[in-house]
Request: fold
Amino acid sequence: MPSRKILHLDLDAFFCAVEELRDPTLIGKAFAVGGSPDKRGVVSSCSYAARRLGVHSAMPMAKAIKLCPSLIVVHGHHHDYGAYSERVMNILNNTSPMVEQISIDEAFIDVSDLPEAGEAIARKLQAKIQEEVGLPCSIGVASNKLVAKIANNIGKSRHRGDTPPRAIMVVKPGDEAQFLSGLPVKEMWGVGPKTAESLTRLGYQTIGDLAAAPEKLLTQHFGKMGIHLSRSAKGIDERPVEVEYNIKSISQEVTFAKDIQDLRKLEKQVEQMAEQVGFRLRHKHLCAGTVRIKIRWSDFSTITRQVRLSQPTNQDQIITDAALQLLRANFSNSRPVRLIGVGASNLCEPAFQLSLFDQKDEKERKLLNTIDELRDRYGEKVIRKGSTIHSKRIKQG
Reply:
């Protein structure tokens, strides 16, 4: 069977690139897109000039200003981001019908049916997006999604300077394991910082170390996920490019009978809704790359704010923490709240749930599984983490 040709495309500092199109005076300057530093805002994206000074996404804006006093703060234009993203995705869909958009600025493209080499297709796409939309992008090329994603990450990470990387990295069929072998375990798609630390403590410094470990040993350490870990370390990934998810987002919202000005009451409501969103994601076997909140004040004015996660998740605590951060950054005790909502978007299939190898996260997973089983049996509201079962009597079955 001939090898597949899979591209992973990522728009370089997408929000910032759009802002530079809106205001060319920003080009080459240290700036960040996000909330105000005096309102506990966070960095959604930052220019490469800002990154060289230590600023990064998800950093509190106040901290970013301390690192870079001359940092320019730009409040995002999310409608424009959506419009530019759609233009890029149209180009991808005109190149191949096999496109899986995994976030507003990221997608996989299966170009196996095209006659040209993967690298040639990548260069044409990169040039076309720059010429027609004005946005820079980087592309990883490989025989599967896992290696294409990692290749793109490595290509971008090797860039130095204040300009977008515009990287193209190609891993030829048959070279997957060799390409991965020398990389630190943290570069494995789906491995977070805590998991990487746990793997390192067990003696697995590189992805090659994992590939060399007997599969039986990995399953002893990590259970059934050890099999996935072993295959991934060898560069094996047979997942297809999923053309479209029927579900674009999952959300919960509530309109209060009486407007609320108490932050703690709003926090409790957000915590409950975040847990419901997490449950629904797990029930549909999906993860979310973006968490958002919606706030409608008593005068019916409404805002939505969102944050992109470092990696997709369906764990309640991560969704809750992100939603609470957004709430606190936008809450005003002088404005009563009429409606509040929590949502998850940029949905994708779970990667390898490697964070489950951490003892703390393993306990979290088991607890969530138990709660989910009860919810499946008795309804979503039957139990919540950190609270007691609703007073309604539950029959033992």
Remarks:
- The longest helix spans residues 263-283.
